[in-house]
What does this fold into?
Amino acid sequence: MRDAYKAFIHGSQAIIPQGVEEIDAFAFWKCSDLTSIEIPESVRKIGENAFDGCSGLTSIKIPNSVTELGDGVFQHCSGLTSIQIPNSITKIPDNAFWGCTGLTSIEIPDSVTEFGKFAFWGCSGLTSIDIPRDETRISQGAFEGCSELLSISIPDSVTDIGDYAFRRCTRLSNIILPQNVTRIGRSAFERCNITSIEIPDSVEEIGFSAFGYCSKLHSIRIPDSVKVIDSFAFASCTALTQIEIPKSITTINESTFSRCDGLTHVVIPDNVSEIRKHAFFGCARLSSIELPQGVKIWPHVFHDCTAVKEIKLKETDPEKIDASLYISGLHDLTKISVLVSSGSENAYRNHEFFGKFKEILPCKL
It folds into this structure.
């Protein structure tokens, strides 16, 4: 069927005659010499990958008659710098503009209520985008790799930030999350340039590596609405100097704050019953730790935390926490002071394991 469309190509231009209602899938696939195309008002649908690989196309106008775009419709159109999407379109399909590295701007009408997966993946020339006001979800990988994206406006209608949504948007430094978002997906803002962010009170879940490797992130507010902070959520956020773990969290997952070199002090709230392996691995400046009663500590939680000088323990019975601390990966116990509740200091001083620490001191906890 693709051969039939060759008749519409005249040199570097394609003129589709009036009366054609559908441009078939892969119709102009890899027509890299094509620089312009005229689509008549009779066209209702443009099929999947119809213009995939048309790297010579610089602009295209989609008529108001078109109501459906197929997956990957303009994928790898690396020369495309602008496109006008009509009000007749309600969905930007999966991979629609994947790898359109020359695309610098795009106007998305309010008629669009759904973004497909990886819709603008790798659009490295895109500097800003306004998401339509009725959009409810930023789909998986929708803007991943948009390395020049400086700002984005997310409407209040959005409730879900999908996996990889803004991953590797390396110039994105400021973002405001709307008050209705309930989930921040896996690697959603991984390797972004964000310096600070406030998580709204509606958020219940922060996904795996959601803010991982955001090396300029220095402050973040996590509300008590958050019930799950997944593994590696803030790993290698090297500028992060403090973190307040919400009271709603019961488990600190694997490597959640690993290699957060700027952290100097951490207080584990009373509701936390488990800290999983490598949770604070490699936090090189961490000097003070406060742990609640009854907490289970997995191996290497504090491995390579070489600056630790003080540990506050709310546990009054040393037998209930000695094994956990023994495997936690703490370095050179002789340089670490242990602060315990007044009245329990003698039990700690007479304990074989805690006798290896620098000193046992009573305090009010």
Notes: DSSP finds two helices and 28 strands in the chain. The radius of gyration is 27 Å.
